[in-house]
Design a protein that fits this description.
Length: about 80
C-alpha cells in the first residue's frame, strides 16, 4: 500500500515488493547491490530517507540501506 504520494514516483514501485523486505540472511550480495543501485538512481530517495526516520522503519531495504537490525553477537560467556 502506497501511503505517501512520493511513493508512486519511487523506482522500487516498479519492482516486486518481496525483494525489498527479504531477511538479510536470505539476500545475496548481488541482490543487495542491485537494490542499492535502484535506490541511488531514485529521484525520491531523500523523501524515502525522511520517511524512514519519521515513521521509524526498522526492517527491509529503504533509501539504499538495509534497515534490518543486526543480530547481537554471541557473548563468550554464553549470556544473552
Amino acid at each position: 500500500m502506497m501511503s505517501e504520494p512520493w511513493m508512486r514516483e519511487a523506482l522500487c514501485f516498479w519492482f516486486p515488493t518481496d525483494q525489498w523486505i527479504v531477511e538479510p540472511a536470505d539476500r545475496s550480495a548481488a541482490s543487495e547491490a542491485a537494490l542499492g543501485t535502484v535506490c541511488r538512481a531514485c529521484a525520491v530517495r531523500a523523501d524515502c530517507e525522511a520517511y524512514v526516520g519519521r515513521v521509524g522503519i526498522v526492517s527491509g531495504f529503504w533509501a539504499g540501506l538495509d534497515r534490518s537490525p543486526l543480530e547481537a553477537p554471541a557473548r563468550a560467556d554464553g549470556a544473552a
